[in-house]
Specification:
The complex is a heterodimer of chains A (361) and B (502). Chain A has 361 residues and is mainly alpha-helical. Chain A has one domain: ABC transporter involved in vitamin B12 uptake, BtuC. Chain A has 15 helices and 4 strands. In chain A, a hairpin with a 5-residue loop joins strand 2 and strand 3. Chain B is an alpha/beta fold and 502 residues long. In chain B, the strands form 4 sheets. In chain B, strands 6-7-8-3-9-10 form a 6-stranded mixed beta sheet, with helices on both faces. In chain B, strands 16-17-18-13-19-20 form a 6-stranded mixed beta sheet, with helices on both faces. Chain B starts with a strand and ends with a helix. In chain B, helix 12 packs across helix 13. The longest helix of chain B is centred in the middle third of the chain and has 16 residues. In chain B, 35% of the residues lie in helices and 24% in strands. Chain B folds into 3 domains: 233 residues, P-loop containing nucleotide triphosphate hydrolases (Rossmann fold, 3-Layer(aba) Sandwich), CATH 3.40.50; 175 residues, P-loop containing nucleotide triphosphate hydrolases (Rossmann fold), CATH 3.40.50; 84 residues, Rossmann fold (3-Layer(aba) Sandwich). The chains are: A mainly alpha (361), B alpha/beta (502). Chains A and B meet through helix 10 and helix 11 of A and helix 2, helix 4 and helix 6 of B.
Chain lengths: 361, 502
């Protein structure tokens, strides 16, 4: 220690022992609670389908890409930014991969061999990384509003998708189909079907990827200098600068990671749907933003959690399934319910935060 | 014995568009010395410090640390070179915990060891007597505690140079005392400390040397014994100071007719902010003040008058007629204006220009569907820039680039333009230099002479004595006394604040 003043420092009035929750942790707890309550209600009232573990795994299978996209979104939102290009990047990635894998079908005069799934994956990563690097550079070093930059990214990706191939088509590539059909069984959670046969529960490869990413990013945000810088920059970027954090580099890293995750998410999406289409994943960026917010990330930056985002995605899709299984199976009902859920959630967040902040005075 | 110099800044220049912020400034800091950097607002103190810490790039000059030339391009560079800084504004992240704020950006390695930083932070907080827990979110601490945390962070670094830019403005006496002890113990260890403050007493309490800046230029460096206060003030102002004492002579208190109907009268006014219901009245041409310790409810009283906080009861009359004030706009419509204590938060709109900030109140009163023409707005702005001697490049300059004192003048201009009947000034002179302080005090008296009523609040009792003809004394949210005429002396006020009928 540099100095000691214990002896002559005036007695400080004893504080209450508990330090209180940080905003991030408080919102995380709310998110998990909301998800648990919602899922329990679904199991209790909608019965059968929801009671089976496979229902839960199906939600994961359907949303693995959304979890990945939302994680990237959460990263940039924590730094106080936003990335609205991720949906169209997903679409572009799917289209590029599809065209590459089926090049012998689409352009038989030029290619005789089909593409390899591994190379398709590299293409996906490359596209995501490219978007991340360019957008990150523009946002961080040229200090252009992230909304504008990524809006441009959105339009660019959308245009490129159509240029690459304008129509929807299903991929016929055999090697890829094998990868796509790979099911990883979850031991002990299967169920017996009507004929009395045991059907094992399974998840797709994408789910494993998504969970790995969630775990890695959770650790990154919690324990690494880079991760903590995200929070500092989002909390107050001028202060962060004065505290000795490289604000520009931090923002750059966040956008690059978000772009890369859009690439990975795009490939996971592609593995799930197995087709390319200009209309794929449109609006996915909005879903990702909504999921992040429901997961306790604040648009103002500095507050958020990857675990929350994971549950945010699950909550969003669970509510959609609930609405669908209530027989309200039209798109607008789902949208209205999601809107209502967002509103209620934001209301609860702001009430709790303002009460907490009042309590300090 | 002359100690070796630790930090030398030679010929530092810094230009902003239209402004020469620093012109050939030299500054020398020796080992184990507390060096005051003094000057009026806008003299270039903060700019010099920001150049030294790499927040602003310098346009000329050289910085040497322990004799070696260093180039500092960012706050990180400064930290690595052993220069740690506590800025005037809190430069911590409110969303992080106290412990993290103390260590972020200066730990080695990529991983954060939460247990270690929490323990270390806990020890540091204890040793400094800071009432905060390491795991607490910083935003949930009071401003004073946040400032202490910033100081703890700075002193914990193995620094050679410690810069304290107005660290005391949000601290109470006890905390200032603690800070001084800390500074002296660091001084013994050979750390050089640069101390920027507006409080002259504090300079003479702890400092060894003074460097004075004026208008971005170096006035001189002095050993503290050689420079008595009056001389220091005159160096800062660049003129002999003769009118500090007798400023009040032109305000004739006898003129106020206490039997007349008050311009503003409140009976049993009560609010939600913890003040007891109070009676209050002010007459035409009167300047009165609320005094009391920080937190005694001075600001809360005037905020209740203005309707800035929720009012829960009481009768309010203007010129004998009962009126209803529930929100600031009501008060404004009745000619009551309030200059808020915290000008950053409640007063200025930083990105708007000086002109737009000046016409803001008038525009609100006229309604937004009857805009003030550009020419008229410019005429108003120029008139008040001249009248109040606001130092600004032009009326188009964004207000946030002005110095604190000049921002305050712009807000004053805003209210004056709206032609107030009753003007409430809450700490209008805080954080601004003596020259501007006196200008504002004179202005208040001039307004009163023109028949306006003014309530003036200040933490500095002698300032209140110079301006107010009647003082309302508060303690613990309660009005405990009213002093006027012969009773207006420092001792009497102290006694009333302290309580007891002596």
């Amino acid at each position: 220690m540099l100095f000691t003043m214990n002896t002559n420092a005036p007695q400080v009035p004893k504080l209450k022992k508990r330090a209180g929750l940080t905003d991030t942790n408080l919102l995380l707890i709310i998110t998990i609670a909301v998800f648990v309550v919602m899922y329990t209600c679904a199991v209790a009232f909608l019965g059968e389908g929801f009671a089976k573990p496979q229902q839960f795994f199906n939600i994961l299978n359907e949303n693995a890409y959304m979890i990945i996209l939302s994680c990237g979104m959460t990263l940039v939102m924590i730094t106080g930014g936003i990335d609205i290009s991720v949906g169209q990047v997903t679409s572009l990635v799917a289209m590029c991969c599809a065209v590459y894998l089926d090049r012998n079908v689409l352009y038989p005069d030029k290619f005789s061999e089909p593409g390899a799934p591994f190379v398709a994956m590299l293409i996906a990563l490359g596209i995501g990384l490219g978007f991340g690097l360019v957008q990150g550079f523009l946002v961080a070093y040229l200090e252009i509003q992230p909304f504008i930059v990524t809006l441009a990214g959105l339009f660019f990706a959308k245009g490129m998708t159509t240029i690459v191939y304008a129509k929807q088509f299903n991929v016929a590539n055999e090697a890829f189909k094998n990868v796509k059909e790979t099911r990883i069984e979850v031991p002990g959670l299967g169920s017996t079907n009507r004929l009395g046969n045991y059907v094992p529960a399974y998840v797709e490869i994408g789910v494993i990827v998504a969970i790995l990413i969630v775990v890695l990013l959770f650790a990154l945000l919690r324990w690494t200098k880079t991760g903590r810088s995200f929070y500092a920059v989002g909390g107050n970027n001028q202060s962060a600068n004065m505290l000795g954090i490289n604000v520009k580099r931090t923002k750059f890293i966040a956008h690059v990671m978000c772009g890369l995750l859009a690439g990975i998410g795009g490939y996971v999406f592609f593995m799930h749907v197995g087709s390319g289409s200009p209309s794929h994943a449109s609006g996915a960026e909005m879903n990702a933003i909504a999921s992040s917010i429901v997961g306790g990330t604040m648009l103002t930056g500095g507050v958020g959690n990857i675990a929350g985002t994971f549950f945010g995605v699950l909550s969003m899709s669970t509510i959609k399934i609930i609405v669908a299984s209530l027989g309200l199976d039209e798109a607008w009902w789902t949208n209205i319910t999601v809107a209502a859920m967002l509103c209620i959630f934001l209301l609860v967040q702001s009430i709790i935060l303002s009460r907490k902040n009042k309590a300090k005075k | 014995m002359e100690k070796s110099s630790l930090l030398e800044m030679r010929g530092i220049c810094k230009y902003f568009p239209n402004v020469r912020a620093l012109e050939q400034v030299d500054f020398t800091l020796r080992e184990g010395e507390i060096h005051a950097l003094m000057g009026e607002n806008g003299a270039g103190k903060s700019t010099l410090i920001k150049v030294l810490t790499g927040v602003y790039p310098k346009d000329g000059g050289e910085i040497r640390l322990s004799g070696k030339h260093v180039s500092i391009r960012s706050p990180q560079d400064a930290q690595n070179a052993g220069i740690s800084t506590v800025y005037q504004e809190i430069t911590l992240c409110p969303n992080l915990t106290v412990a993290e704020n103390m260590f972020i950006g200066r730990t080695k390695g990529q991983l954060t060891n939460w247990k270690k930083i929490n323990t270390h932070a806990g020890e540091l907080l204890d040793s400094l007597g800071i009432p905060a827990l390491p795991q607490q979110q910083l935003g949930s601490c009071s401003i004073a505690v946040q400032q202490m945390v910033a100081i703890a962070r700075a002193v914990d670094m193995e620094c050679k140079v410690l810069i304290l830019d107005e660290p005391t403005s949000s601290l109470d006496e006890q905390e200032v005392e603690k800070l001084f002890k800390l500074m002296l113990s660091l001084k013994k260890k050979g750390v050089g400390i640069i101390f920027v403050t507006h409080f002259l007493e504090q300079v003479y309490e702890v400092c060894d040397r003074i460097t004075v800046l004026r208008d971005g230029q170096l006035v001189g460096e002095y050993i503290i014994e050689d420079l008595p206060r009056v001389k220091l003030v005159s160096k800062m102002l660049g003129k002999e100071l003769d009118d500090m004492a007798d400023i009040k002579s032109d305000a004739d208190t006898a003129k106020i007719d206490y039997s007349s109907t008050p311009v503003y009268e409140a009976q049993k006014l009560a609010g939600t902010t913890g003040i007891k219901p109070f009676d209050f009245a002010i007459r035409k041409g009167e300047v009165n003040g609320f005094t009391g310790l920080l937190g005694s409810g001075r600001s809360e009283c005037v905020r209740a008058i203005y309707g800035a906080d929720k009012v829960t009861g009481g009768i309010v009359k203007m010129d004998g007629k009962q009126i209803n004030i529930t929100k600031p706009l009501d008060a404004m419509k009745h000619g009551i204006f309030y200059l808020a204590e915290d000008r950053k938060r409640d007063g200025i709109v930083g990105d708007l220009s000086v002109r737009e900030n000046i016409i803001l109140a008038l525009q609100v009163l006229k309604g937004f569907f009857r805009p003030i023409s550009r020419a008229q707005a410019e005429a108003f702005a120029d008139e008040y820039i001249k009248l109040l001697k606001i130092k600004t490049a032009s009326s188009d300059t964004p207000i946030k680039s002005l110095s604190g004192g000049n921002q305050q003048k712009v807000i004053l201009a805003r209210w004056l333009l709206a032609n107030p009947i009753y003007l409430i000034l809450d700490e209008p002179t805080r954080g601004i230099d003596i020259g501007t302080k006196i200008e504002i005090q004179k202005l208040v008296l001039k307004l009163a002479a023109e028949g306006k009523s003014v309530t003036f609040i200040s933490s500095e009792i002698d300032e209140m004595l110079r301006t107010c003809s009647r003082l309302i004394v508060m303690r613990d949210g309660r009005v405990v006394g009213e002093l006027s005429g012969e009773d207006l002396t420092q001792n009497k006020i102290m006694a009333t604040i302290a309580g007891g009928e002596s």
